[in-house]
Amino acid sequence: MKKAPTIRDVAATAGVSVSVVSRVLNDGSVAPATRERVVAAIAELGFRPRAAARELNGAGLTIGLVLADLTNPFFARVADRIVWEARARGVQVVLMTTQEDPHIEAETLATLLDRSVGGVIATPTGGNIDQWSRLQEVGVDLVFVDRSIAALENTDVVSIQNDASAATATEHLIGLGHDRIGLISGPLSTSTGTARIAGYQAALARAGIPSDTELVRGVPFRGGAGADAVAALLSLPEPPTALIVANTAQVQSSMRQLYQMGIEIPQQLSVIVFDDNPWTELVSPPLSVIRQPIDMLARHSVDLVLGRMQGKLPVGPRIIEVQAEFVSRSSSATRSVASPTAHDAVSHP
Amino acid sequence: MKKAPTIRDVAATAGVSVSVVSRVLNDGSVAPATRERVVAAIAELGFRPRAAARELNGAGLTIGLVLADLTNPFFARVADRIVWEARARGVQVVLMTTQEDPHIEAETLATLLDRSVGGVIATPTGGNIDQWSRLQEVGVDLVFVDRSIAALENTDVVSIQNDASAATATEHLIGLGHDRIGLISGPLSTSTGTARIAGYQAALARAGIPSDTELVRGVPFRGGAGADAVAALLSLPEPPTALIVANTAQVQSSMRQLYQMGIEIPQQLSVIVFDDNPWTELVSPPLSVIRQPIDMLARHSVDLVLGRMQGKLPVGPRIIEVQAEFVSRSSSATRSVASPTAHDAVSHP
DNA sequence: TTGTAAGCGTTATCAT
DNA sequence: ATGATAACGCTTACAA
What we know:
Two copies of one chain form a homodimer.
Chain A: H1 7-14, H2 18-25, H3 32-45, H4 51-56, E1 62-67, H5 73-88, E2 92-97, H6 102-114, E3 119-122, H7 129-137, E4 141-145, E5 156-160, H8 162-175, E6 181-185, H9 191-206, E7 216-218, H10 225-234, E8 242-245, H11 251-260, E9 270-274, E10 288-291, H12 294-309, E11 319-322, E12 325-327
Parallel strand pairs in A: 1-2, 1-3, 3-4, 4-5, 5-11, 6-7, 6-8, 8-9, 9-10
Antiparallel strand pairs in A: 10-12
Helix pairs in contact in A: 1-2, 1-3, 5-12, 8-9, 10-11
The structure holds a DNA duplex (16 and 16 nucleotides).
């Protein structure tokens, strides 16, 4: 259990002072000849600067990643890519999850302070507005990914074009002859929720279809809310013939509910869900999806935090929206004449 | 951007020395009256010890989590639970992924050294044996979860009862009349791979069924190896009538291949896969699975590292095996007379 | 039981 | 361009 070489050891074997070594470690200016000797010494000793010591000086290269729920394939992939991108830049990631619980999130934010992280990438629950901004006040660079909070106007955000994507999905269904399209979306407290609803309504409006507020369900991210919304939607007197599950966090529970109810897709109900993953085309029928370019989300997020941390970015919040791709599969089809539920519904000729 | 209170501030407002504060922070012995005053001061100032400073003294409470691939729902859930369990104990988690690449893993291990983490929970790729043991020599407590490396005998391991689980699945299929059962397993360099194969063979032996080595495929964790193995297995002159995908990392690609080949399940081929997730019962037909108690794996892993880090555990490696549950669904059924491929196979009467 | 003081490994501030 | 040296915030012998 012999100890690792320190910067002092390097300085000694290179015949220079610690400050010189520190300079070559960072981007300081050092005489070419000297630098070479130091580099050699570093290699020879296998020296690696200790992250803890750096962080103590506020010079650490560690970011916090606050995700809602790793159980959701979408967030899992986001984590995967972010860790990947961070690693490529020599940055470590401390992972924390909120389980969509603002209380846990608050605790998490407190912990983040102790960690001396320089930046944070997060999918906020929607609450803890004060805590988030306090984090920023302490100098921690913050960037929201996927979701954001309207009240926090001064924060960088990376997400897909939520409105446009929702509109695309809606238009696709309209083109298929549907005029009662259900929408299960995220909470109105997040930009994701409002944007997707906006896109949906815009598409409806353009097609001259009146938008029925009953068909729009803004469900919270956590819990079985997705399933409940599905059930509620289908038990409407005039149930939708098509459904868009625009709440990424709830696709699984929504789909499960649909299958459990024995709804025939797309005969009884056309379905489009936000977020693609390897399983969506394995279920029957294969699902039409909005595929989010997760790698882009990740890359931009990491670039942003790091850019901020190194002060290489102009002031003012950066809003980056990447394009999502609509993938049409078998779960969305032409509207059939029959009503989706067995109400013995009288058709209006 | 005013600075956070330090331990010295607390000491001052409590009218004691820093060491006393440090003692109440940790488990030190302090006079009840004094302790109370210190606690009050801490609360009043909202003091929180900085992780970096602690780690510099080797007293940090941070663990490294080295996972293969967050894209795989199994590992994602493992991460989710481990982060959860860690948080419950006031421990932070630095996440790193290897993408099943030993080279990246090596890099990761180096980084772990700089991080001054006290412990590491990992799913090793199978390589980097020297590096892993060096990590241990430096005093980092290591526990493998899910997978392990045979050569590293002195390491704690938490996993499911791989042999028993594989045996259960095999017996289930045998009971269904199958005698040619394919097995796609992990690499032989990991305990997971060998154990699952062993269980499978044991079950076969008990039933008096000769084990055909051609039916067993130990495929590497990364890449599309699972799909290839499936294809190879089914193009055998005497293809299996049942298949166990015992390589958790490859279920997705294996299933995809099966669907793409248009294999009818379970008519042409009965299938059982290791690892359950929300989608397995949404695909058609719903998959029979070995459900791994991920929460148990996580809890034990965290308990182990922390136990080691605090020296509260007897010496000698700890091998914890939790029980997995076999869930029978529609993908496994009685063997049909027909051969799974259209070879116009001559039946041997 | 409590206090003093010496680190822990870097970075940052000055001089030189 | 380089070198002392003081922080950084905490833990931990060692004293009292």
